[in-house]
Amino acid sequence: MSEEVLNTEEPAVKTGADKEYTVEDIQKQIKPLSENAFVRFFQKIWRWWLGLWYGFSTKHPKASKLIYMVFFFIIFSEGVTIIQFLIMTFLPFAFQGLWETPFVWPAVAINGLTDGGGNQLFYAIFNEPVKFILAGAGENGGDLVLLASTAAEVTAIKANPAYAAAVLQSAGLGNFIAFEIAVFIAQCINFPLQRNITYRSHGNPWFQAMWYFIGWLGISVFVNALWGICNPLMMSWNWNEVVIGLIKTVITGGLSMVIFFPIFLIIFPDNNKMAKNARAKYEKLVAANAPAEKQEAAKAKAELWEDKAVKANAEKEFFQAKSVVNAKAMTYFAAVKAKENPKEKDDKALLEERVQKCFTEAVEAIKIKEEKQAAFDAVNAAA
Question: What's the pTM?
Fold first, then answer.
């Protein structure tokens, strides 16, 4: 789209005693585009999308908020999972000396349950047995997997001449420590992203980090306990390792995400909710005739959160209004261009009607933006 003002015959629109808008006013709402054609193409798409999204947000605030949170929650969760995977490609080798140390707890033997190699299977919340592979010794010339859940079993495998060529794999306590470190690093990245972007929370970061850590530990133990039931059964049924890995990802990863999402809503309340809760606490103290000091402290806290909520809402609404007016302006000039260069099948009367409609919508968007800007400036001036 050209950045030059297109010639139109649209009249100025009066919106107040001394205020009227023209085509030039609409043109001013469009941010300059890059000189690079490639960048400019994506700028146009991005600005169109922002206008569409914020238009939807204005009409459906609750639905848009939920969609926004779910989208970024999944994006960040999957992103840190990829980081975790990349870390696990090399970190286990830093603990190679612990690969021969099994870490299986509580290591409850399941009677009559063995895997394809005849290894006893256990129920365990933390299940990292020592793993050896003996190439070509399995069924139909495949590899034989040897698992050792206790130190005695490790010693027995190493002492057996038949297993002299068995190769130790990344497993055991060394793999467990590497995995937990990788997960911890991933969560250290995930925490600020979820807090600041997905949930836009401004609560006490140390308090939130504490509950985040507690929630992560609790959910990890829960999904591992569930996996401790599923894994032995699938191994005893000789299911394909790829299928088992996929199910493990769904249970330990997918289920964790489903549980974490509502928990994050509690850990990361937004400013409006914090303000509402603080005000309710203050009113409760007043109704109970609590000591004056407590009432004053609660009142100050409520006013602090209400101030934060007002500022955050004003900033959000102003940014939203700017994006909407930019999109409306672009839509208007696109309609003008279509009117000036009609196709044979186009109805000129409908094109004219669309130009008028887009002009009115652009002017209304400008008015809303100016109102939001005035509110935003007033809030910041009072700070």
Answer: 0.76
